[in-house]
Amino acid sequence: MGKSSKRQRHAKAAIKQEQSGACISSAESEQARRSANMAAIRSKDTKPEMIVRRGLWKRGFRYRLNHKRLPGHPDLVLKKYRTCIFVNGCFWHGHNVALPQIDNGQLTIDNSACCKIPKTNREFWVAKIRRNKERDKEEQKKLAAMGWHCITVWECELKPSKREETLESIAFTLNHIWLQDHQAKVVSYPKREEEDMQMPMAAEDIEKV
Q1: pTM given for the model
Q2: What values do phi and psi take at 83, rounded to 5?
């Protein structure tokens, strides 16, 4: 086993402190547990990302992972299709939630079916999700300006009931992009003079001189 990351060590310490019976409030206990759970979430090789990678590989698509030179470090880069794929967690990237508005001096945001904002330390999570959404938008704008297509795949779209449909949709989109980018251009050319003459049909009798 490799050494655990600093983030994971802090997460384990938080859980251990909670289990030791330290005198903290129930709110603080819940916050510590939530922080530990959040810290344990991996940013690479997540289950949704692995589903997409295996699904595309099975369908014959080849890709690079986490291209460091591209804005946002896309999860998958398919150079042949000039396409970047981002596999986003619904919570971290605020799937189906509107950007927060100011209400009585505070940021507000509504929950969606797949993105539930914690009640504990809510302002922090609202601000974090807002920043993530804004950053995603800016990074995809930069990629578009560089000539890249962007596909976003959401965690909820990879549930067993939707998985195959989602993967087939990605494959269809990639093939459509390739056809659009490589379609043959129709070259116009000037007509020759004889092309304007009315020519007889093959079965037509030609008048004898």
Answers
A1: 0.67
A2: -130, 140
C-alpha–C-alpha distance, residues 131 and 109, integer Å:
13
Average pLDDT estimate for 50-54? 97
Place of tokens 């289990």: 19
CA–centroid distance for 31 within its chain: 29
Residues 90, 152: contact at Cβ < 8 Å? no
Candidate CATH numbers 3.40.50.980, 3.40.960.10, 3.30.565.10, 3.50.4.10; the one for domain 27-181: 3.40.960.10
Query: Which H, E and C letters describe the chain, residue by residue?
Result: CCCCCHHHHHHHHHHHHHHCCCCCCHHHHHHHHHHHHHHCCCCCCCHHHHHHHHHHHHCCCCCEECCCCCCCCCCEEEHHHCEEEEEECCCCCCCCCCCCEEECCEEECCCECCECCCCCCHHHHHHHHHHHHHHHHHHHHHHHHCCCEEEEEEHHHHCCCCHHHHHHHHHHHHHHHHHHHHCCCCCCCCCCHHHHCCCCCCCCCCCCC
Crossing angle for the helix pair 47-58 and 163-182, to the nearest 10 degrees: 60
Q: Report pLDDT digits (tens) over 79-95.
A: 999 999 999 999 999 99
Q: What are the residue boundaries of the structural domains of the chain, listed by start?
A: 27-181
